[in-house]
Every structure is written in C-alpha cells, then in structure tokens.
Amino acid sequence: MTSYVFGGGRFLDPRQDALLEGIEVLVENGLVKEVSDRPIHAASAQRIDLRGRTLMPGLIDAHIHIVLTEVNLQLLSDVPLTLLAAKGSTSMRAMLMRGFTTLRDTGGADYGMKAAVEQGHFIGPRLFIAGAPLSQTGGHADHRKRTQSAFACACCSGLSWTARVADGVPDVIKAARDELRKGADHIKIMVSGGVASQADPLESLQYRMDEIEAAVEEAVRWGSYVCAHAYSAKAIERAVRGGVRTIEHGNLIDAPTAKLMAEKGAYIVPTLVAYDALKRRGGEYGLSDYSLAKNEMVLQGGLRSLELCRAAGVKIGFGSDLLGQLQNDHCNEFTIRGEVMRPQEVIRSATLVNAEIVRQEGKLGELIPGAHADLLVVDGDPYADLSVFLGDGLRMPAIMLGGRFVKNQLH
C-alpha cells in the first residue's frame, strides 16, 4: 500500500478550537503513522501538497439506514432483496463522497452489506450495523397494515427484512441473540412511536421495562450495547433506566431526563435534518398526512432538545436518519445544528463523540498515530463555515478511507 505525507495546509484536530498550521501527517499501511509540527522525512512516501487546504478526519454518521431506500416505506414490500442491496450500495457510495467514512446503520443493513464493503464488492464507508431492529407488536417497526395479520416472509420482502417483531422477555432475548449471532455490532430497539410508522401514536411507550432490560442484558453479555428509538421524555427515561446506551432522536426530551442521561453516561444522537427534509419534501414522495402531522410535533422540539442536552452535559452524537430520496439533504444537519451549536461542537459530534459511540476511540474521529487513515481534504475552514460540507462533497477535493484515496482531485 502506498504511503503518503500530507503537508502545506491547515490541520483540524477536533480536540482543538482552532485550526493548526505547519502540521504534517504520515500515512502508512492504512494507518496514521506520525503527526508532527516539523517536516516528516519518509523516503518511500508520496508527498501531498495541500496548498493551504484543511486536512481533517473523516466524518461519522451514527444514525443512518442504507437500505431504507424509500420515504414511503411500504413501497419496500415490493422490492426484492437483491435490488435493495444494489440501491443500498448506491446510497453508501454517495455518503462516502460527502465525506462520511464511517456509518452506524441503526436498522436494516446486515452482515452481507458490511462484508461487501470490506471485500471490495461495494464502494462505501466502514459500517457498524444493527441488523433488524426489534419492535413490539404494533410498535414503530411493525410495518404490517391494519388489514394484515400475518407477517411477510423476510426472505422475499425488502420491508419485512429490515425489522423484526419480538414480544415478551423470551422472544426479545431470542431476537437479540439472533441478531448478534448474525453479526450485529449493536442492538436497536423501538421504545416509542415514530414518524414513519402508520399505526402507533408518537407518545406511545413501547416495550415493558423487563423487555428493555432483557435486550440490554443480552447485548452487554455479548460485549455490545443497545440503542433505542425514543422521542418523549418518558420513553427516554425508561430506556436509560433500563440500561440503554444511546438514545436516537430524543426530540421531546425535558431537563430532568437530560440530567438523568448525563448521570448514566448515555449518549443522544439527534437527527434534525430528517424532520426538516420530511416537512419540505416528504409529501412529494408519499409520506402520509398522519406521518406529516407527527413530523411537525418532533420538528418543533429539535433545536430545544440540543440546548437541553448541552446544558445537562449529555454527549451529543451526529446522525441524519434520512430515508431514500431525501438523503441528498444529508449534510444540512451541520447547518441546522449550527443555529444553536458552535461549529467546533458540531464537528466533534461527527468525529470524536461518534467514535466513542461506535467504540473506536483513538481509531476513528481524529488523526493521531495508530488511527485509521480516514481523512478529508477540505477547501475552506470548517470551524468558520459549516457550509463547506454542503454540495455532496463539492468542496472536498480528496477523500481517503483506510489509507486509500476514494477521491483525489489534488493533482
């Protein structure tokens, strides 16, 4: 594998509040070998002149669904798994070209998608997967219509393949064990109603405490953890008291629950861009009036949830949760958060905090010796202007994943 020395530009260390000048970085064998404020001499390395641009770590999205390729999820019921995988590969490649070198899929992608990337069959970011998320009957991931009783065969329907229903402690234990057996890096459970689901109230409290605790115990015993879809303060409180490690969305959190999260060391992964995009474009792609009404409820609480969590000291991750045709709004998450957070905080969410969430501290989210050589070359100063991330990578002339250029327009 070719080695490289990057120099002649500015360096973004997400632990620092300002860009650094005069830093050189040596990449060897897919890893960051050396970071120095003096010239690095490596005879076999190819020297890359950044010409004043910014070198920074690759971005991490901690809440994405690469195979939920339709805004109207019911359309996936007529999509074969082969086509679903092909569409997912297209989505992954687009995300990589926006600078996201790591994705945490929170429901849908399986070990086959992860292996396809690792083996070079698909071009995409490194993946951490949940497999099929777990839902109670009638919960957020029970995709049956009200006129249906039976479940569709998971081997035939793209929709049924992306979720599973498990009721009661024995069934939840079995489902969690099965997803871990099949290669899940974490377990996803649904503990409240959601926007896209058609049969559950947004404020509904899903899964009993013993069911939540059962999923957590199985994941922890495996050396993993549970993330939970939750909107209301009560749903979040129940999940955190049950041992859930990351709360997904959390738009309707209140101050006491944010304090509880901080005390328990739980993370929150807001996905504000999803609700902005659904309000503007969801109806165009078949989102129901019922879903649009629920979307309005959570949209109003989004920025407030960030403020409450910041005040309480909750660690805030970075997610997007965009479905299908809305994924080209991906990087709007940066500018939306920029309304209430400093650019440095937003970038830390998408680097350092998310590296902690996927348990890859020191390996992802920063460019230090021993880390994966996942890096971006950016035109401009991300700390001064978050819009550098917009435009589907337009202002990223180079993207490297694991020491290999997946985009290089520096020549």
From TrEMBL:
CDD domains: Met_dep_hydrolase_A (cd01299). Transmembrane segments: none annotated. GO terms for molecular function: hydrolase activity, acting on carbon-nitrogen (but not peptide) bonds. Residues 54-390 form the Amidohydrolase-related domain. PANTHER family: ALPHA-D-RIBOSE 1-METHYLPHOSPHONATE 5-TRIPHOSPHATE DIPHOSPHATASE. This is Amidohydrolase family protein. It comes from Limobrevibacterium gyesilva.
